[in-house]
Amino acid sequence: MKHELRLSGTGGQGLITAGIILAEAALLDGKLAIQSQSYGPEARGGSSKAEVIISDETIHFGKVTCPDTLLVMSQEAANKYTNDLGPNSIVITDSLFVQNVPGFTGKIYALPITHSAKEELGKSLFANIIALGAIVKLTGVVSDASIIEAVLAKVPKGTEEANKKALEIGMSLIK
Amino acid sequence: MSKILLLQGNQAVVEGAIAAGVKFFGGYPITPSTEIAEQLAERLPEVGGKFMQMEDEIAGIGAIVGAALTGKKVMTATSGPGFSLKQEFIGMACSSEIPMVIVDVQRVGPSTGQPTSPSQGEIMQARWGTHGDHWLIALTPASVPECFDLTLRAYALSEKYRVPVILLMDEVIGHMREKIELPDTYADIPQAERKQPTVPPEKFLPYSVDESLVPAMPAFGSGYRWHVTGLVHDETGFPKGTPEATLAAQNRLRAKIENNVDDIVQVENYKMEDAEFAVIAFGGAARTAYESVDMARKEGLKVGLVRPITIWPFAEKQVKELAEKVNGILVHELNCGQYVLEVERVVAGKVPVHLYGKYDNEAATPQELLDEIKKAMANK
Asked: Each residue of B260-304: pLDDT tens digit?
């Protein structure tokens, strides 16, 4: 089984970090993973995407060509990174920023990702971890235990509980 | 014991450098190579090494020339604009035979180009960037584990032949993260040794050689004194302007590499056993090619991949043999066609050589390359 994921939005939203965490969780599950990214020369802002491919077998080509799962956290990313979606692609949007996904007729999970981060954790910077919770709950692409371990290994000391909570919030957004 | 990590190609180069025994880095950070400088700044002090950010790329390689003369293994890392600036010192290192590794993580050029996008536009610059006839080695990894392995190999070759080695990476491999298994300690990793003089200091001739054609290189401060110059020099190390001295110096620099191509040149063959058509690709472009070959095989097409790991010296023998075996070759590289020129030279019309050059900021997808393979096969 091979699963291709793209996490897209604006530079500074933590999407590359989220991609790295997801790939590390896949390794913890004993699978193979490749993570790559594309961003502009800007330090902040500008469109940004992180891609992760998770598979049981050798992965040669490291870029996503037909995303099984797409996370969209800005309208600009929704316009720019969605032209290779298939009819069965799972699309998750941050309802605070994304109005529509042009040309996509499949199911869209419009979730209050950044809204929940601000409301329940007081900071929008937890949005990436909330999104990870939602992705894992929806796709099962990595195990719950591995995503928790990978998140805790990555985040700054002292923020473990808040990040664990962020994962739970993300999972609870998927009913 | 070992550990499994998710690392970028650039990070694997850093670990390879530490494992190889590098003790000095001089450089100036530039995308997409910055992680190498950033992480060596942290790692080198941990192993008793020094990291020095210089005022620019020229000073960066100048600093490692000096550090290498003190007996240390040294590195600098850069991308296209910085690689251009470093060329003068690469020539000096060829002439005065100073071991060093220069990492070039290629991005789109010319000039500042596209800092965050992949390219393989420095294939010819890696060979001919500095002026004058000269001989050096360039290696190109195609995976994160191979970044570690080839960094070690770069030091082994650089010390053995006293020659600068260019680790010619690209943004695809430099920034990609994938699984790598690293030993918990590097204590058991064999360290490349620099040949030392067998005569006392007063009898030492710095550029006299045995049959290996590689002179011994004592460290500055060890009691052996010698003169280092980019001017043509004889075995005393001092400039000599005669035609005989010039010829002898150039012939030796050439022969110490060309006599050893079997030791230096590595090529990987993928699904080539029964292949009737070959793709040649390296570095990040090879990642596309493996998958395109798999797709072609599923359609019953007998296609294989030849992946040069050593870019320079050119894999002349291997490509010549390839031309005897297959009925067509497609070179895929992330530029307008550089490596293909050497392939054409060596194949010399024996079989058709096609080019799929990609130079639009993005690596080719496996499907795009497969379409080009089919087109090329139809044209023979």
From this structure: 999 999 999 999 999 999 999 999 999 999 999 999 999 999 999
Verify cis geometry, omega within 30 degrees of 0, for the bond prior to B243.
no
Q: Which of residues 152-191 of B touch A (CB under 8 A)?
A: 172, 175-179
Fold of B268-379: Rossmann fold (3.40.50)
Answer yes or no: do B287 and A62 touch at CB < 8 A: yes
**CB A41 to CB B115 under 8 A?**
yes
Q: Give the ipTM of the model, two decimals please.
A: 0.94
Same fold, B2-183 and B268-379: yes
Convert the pLDDT of each residue in B175-190 to its tens digit. Answer: 999 999 999 999 999 9
Quick one: tokens of A1? 């089984």
Selecting from B6, B176, B362 the residue whose C-beta is nearest the C-beta of A24 gives B6
Q: Radius of gyration over alpha carbons of chain B, in Å?
A: 21
Tell me which amino acid residue B365 is.
T
Closest-CA residue of A relative to B174 is: A36
Q: Give the residue among A52, A36, A75, A65 at the shortest CA–CA distance from A132.
A: A52
- Domain spans in chain A, listed from the N-terminal domain onward: 2-172
